[in-house]
Design a protein that fits this description.
Layout (H helix, E strand, L loop, with lengths): L1 H115 L4
Amino acid sequence: KAFDTITSQVTSVLQFIDETDSAMKEQTEGSNQVLEALKKIQNITQEILSGSTEMSSGAGMILTEMERLQNIAVHLNTSSSSMKENIEKINTAILSVASLSDKNKELGDALQKTSDGFIL
């Protein structure tokens, strides 16, 4: 009977060892899955970081181009204002020349009338 008790207890211990071994295998498998998931997360994080760096670089380039376009727009605005002023000066000069031309015609006509009065 003592031998049966020992056999029963050894069987219980072996069963406990099998259950513990199975639990440890499951835990190891779960840990490996967690580690694999963490590696994937790390890779994704690295890809995001790389993409963010590229986006930041692209944003910097866009900002530089926007500043360049703004400078061009300011230059064009200044140039068009200068052109407008010069066109106004040309119009004023044309009106002045037209007025002087009219006066010259009047003076020429008056001179013609006066010279017609001279007898040759």
